[in-house]
């Protein structure tokens, strides 16, 4: 019976060219390209004890860092930013020679602009900026701005157009979307994601609360096709998926 052997990429500098090439986006994606980079267990869980940090292998870290090194802009939901203690983006040493210019700005998306988010972002300057949903009360915007937080408000209308307009405002060609699951579900349903770079950690979560890869109200099916896949000696499986219809 025929089998397909995946490319094996070690977490060793000699493999960096192969990994960088595997993460190249489809050439016919329209700009700006918005590419989610996520990790889950074999059973689809994205967190252990509420955080994703315990899932990764060294190769997963290389993938995550490479996506940041490629990106002009990082997008993340407020729950993930707070749970994971987000700060300004940094470019890992492994990819620094491939990254012209400064690290990307991090945009934190919020529906309500709570005090906790304002307090988290205020000391970090413009490296961490906030994107508020259209309709967030003006007094919340004023509170954040008085504390030195840069706040953008999404345009009304379809989310896909609003997010792409925001990325274009920043001059971004490539955007790394880093979660979390609820915001990813919203972006996928609204057609605001072009690709998904998914790391499957070599483990199962038995018992406990499950956090799916993408969540939200109702049920939606988002067709995808795999564009690249590889593995590593630690047992992780990595795939770059293109959302059907995103590329011609």
UniProtKB/TrEMBL annotation:
Pfam families registered for this protein in UniProt: RibD_C
GO biological process, alphabetically ordered: riboflavin biosynthetic process
Residues annotated as domain Bacterial bifunctional deaminase-reductase C-terminal: 33-232
Gene3D superfamilies xref list: Dihydrofolate Reductase, subunit A (3.40.430.10)
Pathway(s) annotated for this protein in UniProt: Cofactor biosynthesis; riboflavin biosynthesis
Superkingdom of source: Bacteria
Classification via InterPro entries: DHFR-like_dom_sf, RibDG_C, Riboflavin_Biosynth_HTPR
Keywords, in A-Z order: NADP, Oxidoreductase
One Gene Ontology MF term: 5-amino-6-(5-phosphoribosylamino)uracil reductase activity
Protein name: Bacterial bifunctional deaminase-reductase C-terminal domain-containing protein
Species assigned in the record: Dietzia lutea
